[in-house]
# Entry
Amino acid sequence: MEEIRNFSIIAHIDHGKSTLSDRLLEECGLKSKDNKNELVLDTMDLEKERGITIKSQSARMEYSSADGKTYILNLIDTPGHMDFNYEVSRSLSACEGAILLVDAAQGIQAQTLVNFHLAFDNNLPVIGVINKIDLPSANIKVVTEAMENTLLLEKEGIINVSAKTGEGVKELLEAVIKNIPPPKGDKEKPLKALIIDSYYDPYRGVIIKIRIFDGRLKAGDKILFFSNKNTYEVDEVGIYRLKHDKVDELSAGEVGYIIAGIKQIQDVHVGDTITLSAKPISEPLPGFKEVKPMVFAGIYPMDGDEYENLKKALEKLQLNDSSLSFMANNSPALGFGFRCGFLGLLHMEIVQERLEREFNINLVITAPNVKYRVRFQDKDAVEIDNPADFPENQKVEYIEEPMVKVIIITPKDYIGNIMTLMTDFRGKYIRTEYINPLKVELEYEVPFAEIIFDFLNTLKSVTRGYASFDYEFIGFQKAAMVKVDILVHKNKVDALSFIAHKDKAYIHGRAVTKKLKEVISRHMFEVSIQAAIGSKVIARESVKAVKKDVTAKCYGGDITRKRKLLEKQKAGKKRMKMIGNVEIPQEAFLSILKVNQ
# Structure
């Protein structure tokens, strides 16, 4: 165990984490140096296109140090977006240290701070690394001072690297061996292992990535999951060197995988503790929690005949993404579909793209919503994530909305713009802290519903792209929320309804009706578009009727003939308006996403 080092690389998006991982793999001989542009640990096309890590990976490397010893280095990768914050915390809890990566040009960003505090909470030593030192815009001196003053890292211990060229990578590996302690544990104690991640293999079932803290594990052992008390017999144990390598045994301090014939990925939870059923431990590892969806939206097939295909696609997708939840739903406007829960907006976009790319299904997605807590006068509170389920009776005592703590890192010149923006988004100011004379950290408490639509784009707009932000769920808070119904031709369209704060209901309702007026095509009769709270209409737009020139063939003659034709047309339009059906295009549902609250 003295020659084992378990560590993670944590960073803000686009600071070069995946590229640095590749250079470490090259230095340890697991990857060829011929193709530097290939990101080995980012295996999905979406990861390579977006430049973020969606699914965390791990790799076992062997490195011959300057002291003459060969060390086993377990790199436990972390996802690269704030939606997957819990997975980052679980990866860090499996390590004895972390590499904190900071861009030499951008400096400390919001997720840099959040990830640093996660490592700090896990009592991990942190190695500060400044990346992209080869860039012409690199400002190593300023970034070093910021890391020293804000993160309290020693200046002498900060390492400068270029993940693109490989400069400084050997020095970093030596620092990992020197500064990160070996794992502690006892191979003779009862098994205590942490689930880092899991994914589904169609031939082998669920493959579980684990870190063993105490004990040993080999094929034939019967294991017990603490969260659900399920027991399984282990078929295979092994390590991951960019491919699965079967071994006879995994023991304390090691990171590897197990296969136990598990067919349902829902039975396996990240952060859960595994022990032996014959000799279980009394207490699980701390910090486990069920991953709960934060954002909800309806997903419907554009063609009703694709419903069964969509159901099968969601089931297959869930096998490799246990954080996705869905249940059948029927909308009068969109037909049969599913109500899905996601970790955040990015997670929702990824699921949508994978469904369309991998399963070739055209989708209609409703506007995302958060979960509200409604407390009634005569019974307990219920949680509602669908506007269609929002209560319309008068027995509601109060409504609570989810709140998040938002951290914004910005140049000081934009503080005024951000404070104005946060007032518009119902933010409550908490504190201000200067990272350096030019950059500042702002903290606010904001309703989660306010930031899931267009907050990031608006923030980038008012700061010219220089600000970054991260958020963390902190609980529920009372709020004056109302349901706004959208009526098209006097018929409620439940898929277009939304929940908003009463002070913003009129503004948002007005914006939605205007947007729908642009995308709903003209009919032979006038189409009314209304936004209403209960029976009170708060906004209205009309799509004018298409008028046929019925007098085109009247050349001269008495004017009464033309009046007869026009009166006949008017009567026909009135009858058509009473029984006419309005076609609502897919763009109408997508347009809600583009409306800035």
Q: What stands out?
A: The first helix runs from residue 17 to 27. Residues 4-179 form a domain with the Rossmann fold fold (CATH 3.40.50.300).
